[in-house]
Amino acid sequence: MIPLIEIIENLSKLRPIFYSEADFQHALAWEIHKQVYDCDMRLEYKPPQITKRYYVDIWCSQGNYVAALELKYKTRKLYANVKDETFDLLTQGAQDHGRYDFLKDIQRLEEILLKTSVVIGYAIFLTNDSAYWSRGRESQTVDADFRIHQDRLLTGELNWSPNASKGTKKSREEPIHIKNTYNLDWRDYSDPSPEPYGKFKYLLAKVESRKEN
Questions:
Q1: What pTM was estimated for this model as a whole?
Q2: pLDDT at 209 over 90
Q3: Cβ-count burial 70-99 (b if 16+ within 10 Å, e if not)
Q4: Helix axes 21-35, 4-14, angle to 10 degrees
Q5: Are 71 and 27 in contact (CB under 8 A)?
Q6: Total Cβ atoms within 10 A of residue 167
Q7: Bigger pLDDT: 167 or 78?
Q8: Looking at the DSSP assignment, which residues form a beta bridge with residue 87?
Q9: How far apart are CA 32 and CA 39, in angstroms?
Q10: Per-residue pLDDT tens for 8-59?
């Protein structure tokens, strides 16, 4: 078993900020390896049972226990010096795409649990962009269905508003189908800087079982 929240909390003390999503992926995988020593770890792993060209960020096998982890790391502009390292994060923007892609991760994990020996899946979203965890005015946006703010109850078919442009939906036209129900809860990760967007939070969606249509 992977005590993931404990691992993430420990990682936040060692690495309160990351250069990139790949940096976050490798750091988390290493921390899991340190705490779950008998875990057979793979990065960017393609389950053989999945015919689509799809790779899981972190794949951990421990006997009959198999966990699949998908990660997202989205940033706003932040220049910070942390533990004698300089971080110059850019504003990535396109929060509608960031939300869609995270929900797509959850949908894929549900599909993987259905078709493979995976016991549990985790979709993790780490960010210093408060637009993700804040409710905002979602009823007036084209991505209202894809909002992932604090206390959102997530389930069912999620789609773009009819007002969404082709450019907005490009490469993300299909609706998202979530079989389980997730009560989204953002947790504090770190406060590496007093500057605006100096606070990081993470969202963890645990995928364990499915309900039938």
A1: 0.93
A2: no
A3: bbbbbbbebebeeeeeebebeebeebbbbb
A4: 120
A5: no
A6: 6
A7: 78
A8: 80
A9: 8
A10: 999 999 999 999 999 999 999 999 999 988 889 999 999 888 877 889 999 9
Round the CA-based radius of gyration of the chain to a whole number and report it: 17
Nearest to 135 by CA among 180, 184, 173: 184
Task: Extract the tokens encoding 84.
Answer: 């004698």
Residue type, 41: M
User: CB neighbours of 24 closer than 8 A, spacing ≥ 6?
Assistant: 18, 71, 73, 126
Burial of 114 (0-12, 13-18, 19+ CB in 10 A): exposed
More confident residue, 84 or 52: 84
For tokens 């809860």, name the residue.
185
CA of 110: how far to CAs of 13, 126, 211, in Å?
A: 31, 20, 10
pLDDT of residue 138: 58
pLDDT score for 126: 98
